[in-house]
Design brief:
heterotetramer; A: eight-stranded mixed sheet; two-stranded antiparallel sheet; B: alpha/beta; Glutaconate Coenzyme A-transferase; three-stranded antiparallel sheet; 12 helices; 14 strands; 33% helix; 21% strand
Chain lengths: 251, 304, 304, 251
């Protein structure tokens, strides 16, 4: 079956979600990945939106995470303070989806600024909930196009921590163990690996070479000893995915 | 004692040049009507606070109302950049603005602490980020019980909060359903509160379901009955989000001239929200109407 | 995965000797059924936490379940003393109990901080009182922003919280109206949560009004369908508070023998809540029934 | 018109409440005083119960402050944390009613213990919300029988502060100005007076002498220079009061 790059990314991300997990959903591809997982292998996936909606059953594909369609027929709506306070801060969210303009080899993300903070070349939207999510979830999933200007050796600004490098003994963060980070690009899957202490190439997408990945990455990449090829999407996955985005807004 | 007034009077009475203004609403219930009236009344040097500035602050910044923006995510939700905000930050157009930024949790924790009249509030975030380096208001302290290090942010107490709700009585007891975002905290944190509602209902409607009342009239200074006040944002059960306009704004906001033209046509040349809605037209109004989908009543019991 | 079970199983599974147990409910929704089952299962050395111990802790203390009580107001509301509590504190009967006390605000702030997973929370109280002298858990710190002195209390994270609600689905998405007290915080603060409800309803009933859901199933470990679980406390819209019994307890609790007799008759000799309700009798049941008084439905809108 | 001691106390307390004020209501006589004021001279009195009910319209006389009759037909219900956090802590409550086993000349109250805290002669219920209320309201009203064992020279335990004696410069309390305290007994009205810095006799109830009041007080009482006689209850006040408590639970 034919499939596009975004379709492969979404399917690969969806497979990272397990039944019964709680996921903080972002709009766009992450939202598609969550809904795909829920309709296939993870019917008990609990979808939380930072807008305060928990257990959503959206009737259409929402443009924003505050869309009215995620409220109607959901299990619960709480305030924004409560969604951070009662769900994220106590470590009740297993998986968080993040994106970013820049990513470094430790999975740290910049969504704040390109250039100097005080004299920005490009002012980006900022943290939103990303920094909070990055501090508090067990597993971070990142879906992003693989480009050299994104995969940089040094971030212009560290908005959201990946590996939580500046670990301080007395710190309070809930998830002190090294947690899982997966970066799903249009070329490969990178994974934060205990053994290497940084992101390593874990899976190459079909027909992609390691050289191609390295060319599009701003640091010297390490590669997993058990490097695999990303399994192709199954028919059922593509079919359901296209049902979810019938007008191809994101696919 | 009567709090019911129109938006013109409410903005005139309660928003002063130089004020710290908090327009509440996360995607839902964003009070564009109040924002437009502030632009029409040419309020200046405002410190505008919102976790998500959204199009309303983009427009107010373009109109020259802002001196400073306090925020956590300045984008066009689901679309991309907030281009007027960026022009002000990157190029000082139409004027330089100061920024003060937090995470979402930091922003809502600040307004939450303001509502509670706490001087500060702890939260488990920020510690591994560069944000505290550029914002001295994000500090760290040691827990007096566990001796862990935890980040703290100060309370935010705006001069004016502007909130929108589905309904209230004429005293301002407001009921909200759908995404409640920061509406309650904003109302309880601010010195003055302008509440607008889709409909003013009889006190008896409110009293039939007191658990639904999110904001009590004690904190409300002005009650404005203003249908469609939130467009192009939305009101759960009343009208849909105008996603087309959010996409269109991405084009408009690329060019200062187009923004100028938009403001001229939809803000300055329009006297009030009623005219704005008329201008929106029947087709748009009908298109944004959801189907009815009612909650079931609950029994409070009458205890005699 | 199925959380639905009876109270016997829930208590057996989730309450261990020595646990910190928080039975929630301010006047409303106090789970006497769970308390009685704990007594029947002879749980020991419990640390019992409630802002208002009420009759349920009085009975559990009399039955010898308590090692420590954490509270803010130990009285019989509207009536007077909690006499079994007093006998334990004043005379060590039936056993000595440790006490740890706060103000109401302090107690609810503690469970609130527990729900938020904050290590501590500030509150503006305590400073002129003798309470901090007898409770080292009430400390004072300086605000890192305003340098004011403010009291702080530590988070409370019980091993088990026991909450009662009007209704939930079988996963435990619970809706509560009327006085909500500390129900939500208790559920979110505890390691394990036993939820009992007057009725288990279809998931669709809950989803018709998601803003009414106070407790999400994520935090719920056991769902017990237990009508009349709260008697002699009450459930808004379902049954009235049995004020006569609160007055009668004042007499019963004067004499340890009468308490013993009460426990024998209404707890030990009764197998479960169904039998208890049967024993209450039709007349009492009818007397406590309120008249129907419904809220009006609200429109969430169907967005297609 | 004939009236009882409790009736005079309730009427006198009710007169202390002004239209538009916000009052934190206790059960029993305070509840009667609030409802009486609301039906007569203060229709815009806002009644808040520490159970979280705001703007109550009780259909019957509640035995407890958590009675279902105060919920039905009220304006708003919030959690207990919220009633303390959103109303009391920001100084939104004008008047608080307190009671106590012991009161001293500064209006400090003991509701915790008679005897030593660790070896109590009588263990009382404790603070409840009283200590919080005493820290945070503008005006404290106390209704209590006038007895020597209650009006003591030294409290066994200071539960709730009256004059907030231990004032510390850096303290946070909302109401730093000397606030109003009125103690309404079955003999007289005492008032915290700036000029004396302690409770002074402000009004004597009809037919009560100063000597009688002093005999029932554990310290040497000061008397206001403008000592008055408490006005007798009006017919309308007594009539409405008896409607409020038809079965004479409290009267």
């Amino acid at each position: 079956m034919d499939y596009g790059r975004n379709e492969l990314m979404v399917v690969t991300a969806a497979r990272e979600l397990r039944n019964g997990e709680t996921v903080l959903v972002g709009v766009g591809l992450p939202n598609l990945a969550c809904n795909l997982a829920k309709r296939l292998h993870a019917p008990k996936l609990v979808m939380i939106y930072e807008s305060g909606v928990v257990g959503a059953k959206p009737s259409r594909l929402p443009l924003s995470i505050g869309d009215p369609c995620i409220v109607t027929n959901s299990e619960s709506v709480c305030s924004m303070f409560e969604v951070f306070g009662y769900y994220l801060q106590p470590g009740r969210v297993d998986v968080g989806f993040l994106g970013g303009a820049q990513i470094d080899k430790f999975g740290n993300i910049n969504t704040t600024v390109i250039g100097d903070y005080r004299k920005p070349k490009v002012r980006l939207p900022g943290s939103g909930g990303a920094c909070d999510i990055a501090h508090l979830v067990k597993k971070i999933l990142i879906i992003t196009p693989h480009q050299k200007r994104r995969f940089v050796n040094k971030l212009d600004f560290l908005t959201s921590p990946g590996k939580q490098l500046k670990k301080e003994e007395e710190s309070l963060e809930t998830n002190k163990e090294v947690r899982e980070i997966k970066v799903i690009t249009d070329l490969c899957v990178l994974s934060l690996h205990n053994r290497y202490g940084e992101l390593v190439v874990e899976k190459l997408h079909p027909k992609v070479t390691l050289e191609e990945v390295q060319e599009n990455t701003g640091w010297k990449l390490k590669v997993s000893e058990e490097l695999k090829t990303t399994p192709e999407p199954k028919k059922a996955e593509i079919r359901v995915l296209r049902e979810l985005d019938p007008t191809r807004i994101y696919l | 004692m009567d709090k019911v007034m129109d938006m013109k009077e409410a903005i005139k009475k309660f928003v002063k040049d130089g004020d710290v203004v908090y327009i509440a609403g996360f995607t839902h219930l964003i009070n564009f009507s109040a924002g437009h009236e502030i632009i029409r009344q040419k309020k200046k040097r405002l410190t505008l606070c919102r976790p998500t500035p959204d199009l309303i602050l983009d427009q107010m910044i373009a109109a020259g109302c802002a001196q400073k923006v306090v925020f956590s995510w300045a984008g066009n939700p689901g679309v991309g950049s907030l281009r007027c905000f960026r022009r002000a930050v990157e190029q000082g157009v139409p004027n330089k603005i100061e920024i003060e930024e937090y995470t979402h949790f930091g922003m809502v924790a600040r307004i939450h602490a303001g509502a509670l009249n706490l001087p500060f509030i702890p939260l488990r975030s920020n510690i591994y980020s560069d944000l505290p380096k550029v914002n001295p208001n994000i500090k760290f302290i040691k827990c007096p019980f566990t001796h862990e290090k935890v980040s703290v942010v100060p309370a935010l107490k705006p001069d004016v909060a502007i909130v929108h709700a589905q309904r209230s009585d004429k005293e301002g007891n407001a009921q909200i359903w759908g995404i409640i975002g920061d509406q309650k905290e904003a109302a309880y944190a601010a010195k003055k509160v302008i509440l607008s509602v889709e409909e003013i209902v009889d006190e008896a409607v409110i009293r039939r379901d007191p658990n639904r009342t999110l904001i009590h009239n004690l904190v409300v200074d002005a009650v404005v009955e203003e249908p469609w006040a939130a467009h192009p944002s939305y009101v759960q059960g009343y009208y849909d989000r105008d996603n087309d306009f959010y996409l269109e704004w991405d084009k408009i906001s690329r060019e200062p001239e187009l923004v100028e033209k938009y403001l001229e046509e939809w803000v300055y040349s329009v006297n009030d929200r009623r005219e704005y809605v008329k201008k929106l037209g029947v087709e748009k109004i009908m298109k944004l109407q959801p189907k009815r989908f009612y909650s079931l009543p609950v029994d409070y019991g009458l205890y005699l």
